[in-house]
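Regression check, magnesium ion case 632:
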Amino acid sequence: MEPIQGNVSIDAQNIMPIIKKWLYSDKDIFIREAVSNGCDAITKLRMVDSAAAAGCSIRVEVDKEHKELRFIDDGVGMTADEVKTNINQVAFSGAKSFLEEYAKNEDQENAGIIGHFGLGFYSVFMVSDKVTIDTLSFREGAEPVRWESEDGMAFTMTAGERKERGTTITLHISEAEAEFLDLWRVREVLERYCSFMSVPIYLTEIKPEKEEEATVTGEGDAPKAAEDGEAAQEKKEEPKPINDTQPLYTRAPQDCTDEDYKQFYRKVFHEYEDPLFWIHLNVDYPFKLKGILYFPKLKEQFGGIEGQIKLYSGQVFVADNIKEVIPEFLMLLKGVIDCADFPLNVSRSFLQNDGYVRRISNHITKKVADRLTGMFKTEREAYEGFWPDIHPFIKYGVMRDEKFAERMKDCLLFKTTEGKYLTLEEYKERNGEKLPDKMVYTSDAARQDAAIRLFTERGIDVAVLDQAIDVNFVSYMEYSGDPQHKFRFCRVDAELDSLTSQEEAPALDNDKLTAIMREATGKDDLNVQVKPLANDTVPMMLIEDEQTRRFNDMGRIYGRSEFTMPAKYDVVLNSRSKTIARLSEREKDERSLLLARQLFDLAELSRQPLEAEKMTEFIRRSMEIVDLAAQM
Ligand code: ADP
Ligand code: MG
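Current build output:
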C-alpha cells in the first residue's frame, strides 16, 4: 500500500491533551483497554470462525531492554480500511462526552471516578512516546498494515510485515512511565482488571540474551539482537494464564457447589474466613446481570464492616464500589457483579440519570431482600443464627433504602437478654400488656444488669441493642413507625414509669431525703424523687432522659463530644428499700451524707464506669465504710 500520513479525526486533537493532563492518577487502565481490545478481537473471530478461535490467546510482553510493552493477540486483526475507520476516526466516540464533561468541572468529585473508566485504545498514549499497531486481518487476501503515532494525533500508515492473523500493539514507554516496564507492576494491573477475561492472557518477560545465560542483571550492555525478530530472544516464563476465563459467577447456579462458592470468595477477596451465605445473581432479561454477593462474617463485634463490590462488564473489571450501580448499603457485602451491557466508557451523569443503571440497582436490592425474607420465612433458625453477623448490614440498609426497608420491615429481629430473637410484632405481643407501646433495651447488658432485672423479673423482655448502629437505628424505628400509634424505645435506666411498683410503700420524709442528696452531691438543683420501685433491693437509681442520652451517644460515635449536652438525670430513691427508709429516719449528719455519697456513686457505677478521680474517691470512701462496719 501507499504510505499514508495524516491526523487522527478532529476529536482526538481536542481530547488528547485532556487525557494526558487529567488521567494522571489511574493511568494503569491503559493495560485494561489494550487487553480488552485483544479479547474483543478474539471474541469476534469466535463468532465468524469458532474453530480458528479455539486456541487463541493474548500475550503481554514486557521488554525492559527496548523500553517496550507489547500486546499481542491472534484475533480478527484489521485491514487498512478498518484501521482508518476504527483507529483514525471513531476511536473517541465513547470518551468524548465524558471528557468534555469532566473538563467542565475538573476538581469535583469526578476525580475519583475518572480513572475507573477507560478511554479505549488511545489511553495507551498516556504512557507512551510512540505506539505502533502491526495487524493482519483474518479476511482472505488481506495485507498487513502498520500504523504508527508519537502523540496520538499525527500518524503514518504503511504496509506491514506481519505474517500471522492478529494484532500487535507496541508501546514505547516514555521515560516518566518506566514503572510499566516492571514485570510485577504489569502483573498487578493485569490481575486487577483482567483476571476474569474470557480469553487466556499470558504475561512474558523478554530478557536480553546475555542475561539469560548468566542470570545477572546486566544494565544496558546486552548486545542487541541481530534482527528485530522477537522470536529469537523470546523466553516464556509464565506458561499459566494470569486469568480465570470462566469465573464461577458465569456458571449456572445449579452447577456450583458450596465449596466452589467458598473457594471463589477466598480467591477473589483474599479472605481466609468463609462467608456466611451468598446470593448468585443470574438474569438475562430485561438486562444481562450476573454475579455473586457474599455476606461476610463480621470481623469483631464492634468493628466496622468493610465490603467490596467489584463491577465487571463482560468479564472486564470496571471498578470497585460504584455507588450509582450498587446501592450504597450493599457495599458492606463482598461480591462481583457483571453487567454485560454496561459500557466501559461512562460518565458520572450517565450513571446518575440512566434508567438502566437504576433498574440494575433496584434489581440487586430486590434480590438481596428476597433472599433474606425467604430465609426468615422458611429457615428462621438459620436466619437467627446469622442475625448477629448480618444485623448491622440490614439495619444500615433499612435506614438507607426505603424499598429495602419496606421489604425487610417484618423480618427485623431484636435479640433479648435471654437470647430470644423477636420481631417487633412478637415483642409487642409478649410484652404489650405490661409495657404498652414501648420496647425496653440495654446498651450494655453487663453494666446495666440491675436495671435489666427490674424488667426481666416481671417477665418483660429486654432487647440488647449494643452496637454503634443501634443508636441511629432506634431513632429511625421511632420516626419511621406509624405516626398515629407512636412506639418508643427506652433504655432500661430511662424508663421510670414501668419501674415503679403498685405495692404499698412506707411514706418517707421526702424533703429531708432531697436535702441530704443535694448536699451530698453538691448539686442544689438535683431533682430527687422518692418512689416505690419494682425491686426492693435497689436503693437508688439514676434515670437519664432518653433523648438527651441518645443525643450524647450520637455525638460520641461521630467524635463530636464538644456538642454533647450536660447529662440530665433524676435521682430516684426507692421507698421500698430498707436502706432508704433508714436514711430517711436519720438526722442529716456526717454519717448520712457519707451514705448518700456512696449510694450515688453506686447508682452511677451501674450505668457507666467512674472517672479516675471519682473512682479513687469511691474506693477511699468504701474503705471508710468497711472500717465503720468493723467497729460495730
Ligand atoms: P472500543 O473497544 O470501545 O470499540 P477502542 O478505542 O478500544 O474502542 O478501540 C477502537 C476500535 O479499534 C475497536 O472497536 C476495534 O475495531 C479496533 N481495535 C482496537 N484494538 C484492536 C485489536 N487488538 N484487534 C482488532 N481491532 C482492534
Ligand atoms: Mg476497547
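Comparison notes: The chain is about 40% helix and 20% strand. The radius of gyration is 35 Å. No diff flagged against the previous build.
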